[in-house]
């Protein structure tokens, strides 16, 4: 099953006999509530997916900002979206597929044939295609999610990753170096992590760079195809995008779901600052 789908392929799928379900996953750090944008314009018959309430769950701060949903809760949400077993599911957003990748990462291992619309709603609109407005409520589905979820790394896995394989920090360089503050108690990175920002895999038009470019970026940072790779970001969203980019290049990675928002809240965890993986130790 392909991981990505472009506008032309989506239109062909929509004209076919197999049902296609569209998921609008609008979310970003500076605008976490995406429903107003969805109501203003979305792909026809797309259902709005609330990332913070359906692709995450409430949790204690020490678990990170966006803990993963329980399987049963995710299944109930998927049925609300109208998903049935055997459907083609296409997730999209308006921000280079960063949020849509979270849906892909959670659902794909559980048996859902989900792809991400490369370029998102902007690519759809750029081709002059129609959009829907208002809220679309799907007929409830009956999908059954598998018991095997995504490849999740826990905090101890992230601590060991630089010594047993490769740990990739996909945040912007200023956050990796610790020169920019944010929502977390301290700034910096996990010691031993290599910085390979999510933006590296995004072309100027918001689409994914091709597999060769992804492999080249890994090679430049000394990451070999067979390495055991763990990815983290700020709160577990951008890291899913990088996991998708790597998947298109044939590289399987685990995601440290708690990410920096969990690591930075544990006073026993070391924090490195600066441009190198080892960095300079920064205490609390």
UniProtKB/TrEMBL annotation:
Transmembrane segments: none annotated. This is Sulfurtransferase. Gene3D superfamilies: Rhodanese-like domain. It comes from the Bacteria. Residues 16-133, 161-272 form the Rhodanese domain. SMART domains: RHOD. CDD domains: TST_Repeat_1. SUPFAM superfamilies: Rhodanese/Cell cycle control phosphatase. InterPro entries: Rhodanese-like_dom, Rhodanese-like_dom_sf, TST/MPST-like. One of its GO terms (molecular function) is thiosulfate-cyanide sulfurtransferase activity. Keywords: Repeat, Transferase. It holds the Pfam family Rhodanese.
């Amino acid at each position: 099953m392909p991981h990505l789908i472009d506008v032309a392929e989506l239109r062909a799928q929509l004209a076919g006999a197999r049902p296609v379900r569209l998921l609008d996953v609008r979310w970003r750090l500076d605008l976490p509530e995406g429903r107003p944008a969805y109501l203003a314009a979305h792909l026809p018959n797309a259902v709005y997916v609330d990332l913070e309430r359906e692709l995450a769950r409430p949790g204690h701060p020490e678990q990170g900002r966006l803990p993963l949903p329980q399987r049963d809760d995710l299944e109930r949400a998927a049925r609300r979206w109208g998903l049935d077993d055997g459907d083609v599911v296409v997730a999209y957003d308006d921000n280079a597929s960063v949020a849509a990748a979270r849906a892909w990462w959670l659902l794909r291992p559980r048996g859902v044939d989900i792809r991400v619309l490369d370029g998102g709603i902007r690519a759809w609109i750029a081709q002059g295609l129609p959009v829907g407005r208002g809220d679309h409520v799907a007929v409830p589905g009956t999908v059954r999610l598998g018991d095997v979820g995504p490849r999740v790394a826990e905090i101890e896995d992230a601590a060991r990753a630089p010594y047993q394989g490769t740990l990739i920090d996909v945040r912007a360089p200023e956050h990796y170096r610790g020169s920019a503050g944010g929502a977390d108690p301290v700034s910096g990175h996990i010691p031993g992590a290599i910085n390979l920002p999510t933006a590296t895999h995004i072309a100027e038009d918001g689409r994914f760079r091709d597999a060769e470019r992804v492999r080249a970026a890994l090679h430049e940072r000394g990451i070999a195809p067979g390495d055991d790779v763990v990815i983290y970001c700020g709160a577990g969203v951008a890291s899913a995008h990088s996991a998708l980019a790597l998947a298109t290049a044939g590289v399987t990675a685990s995601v440290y779901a708690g990410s920096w928002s969990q690591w930075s809240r544990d006073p026993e965890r070391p924090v490195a600052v600066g441009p190198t993986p080892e960095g300079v130790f920064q205490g609390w």
